[in-house]
Amino acid sequence: MPKITVFDLDGKQHILLGNSGDALMEPLRDEGLVEATCGGAASCGTCHIYLGADWLEKCGERTEDEGYMLEGLEEHVEVKSVSRLACQITITDDMDGMTMDIAPQI
Ligand code: FES
Fold it and tell me: Residue 106: what pLDDT?
C-alpha cells in the first residue's frame, strides 16, 4: 500500500494509504479532500491536484479528456505543469512516498 502525502488548501498534511489499481482520486475523496462529483469521468475538475514535480513521470501522461478539463479550469484557477486530475491516475506500488497539493477549487 503506497503511502501518499497530501497537503490540503490550508497547508495541513494528510498521510493516506492507497490501494494499487485504484484511482488516486479515491483515497483523496474518502479522506474528504476532494469532492470528485463526476465520479472519475474527468468532467468536473474537482479532483485537481498539483503533483510533486518528482512524481510527474511515474503518473504517466495526461489523458485527452483530462487535458480538455484542465484547459477549462484555467479560466478559474491556476493550472500548472504539475496539474493533474487525480481520477485519471492509477495508483501503483512505486508511488510510495508520493506528494501532492490539493489545487484551489472553482
Ligand atoms: S472526479 Fe471529476 S474530474 Fe476527477
Answer: 82
Rounded distance from Cα 87 to ligand 1 centre (Å): 5
74-84 per-position pLDDT tens digit? 999 999 999 99
Continuous segment of H or E residues that includes residue 40? none
CB-ligand 1 contact for 52 (6 Å cutoff): no
Domains contained in the chain, CATH given = 3-99 (3.10.20.30)
Strands (E), the chain: 3-7, 13-17, 48-51, 83-85, 98-102
Evaluate: CB of 42 within 6 angstroms of ligand 1: yes
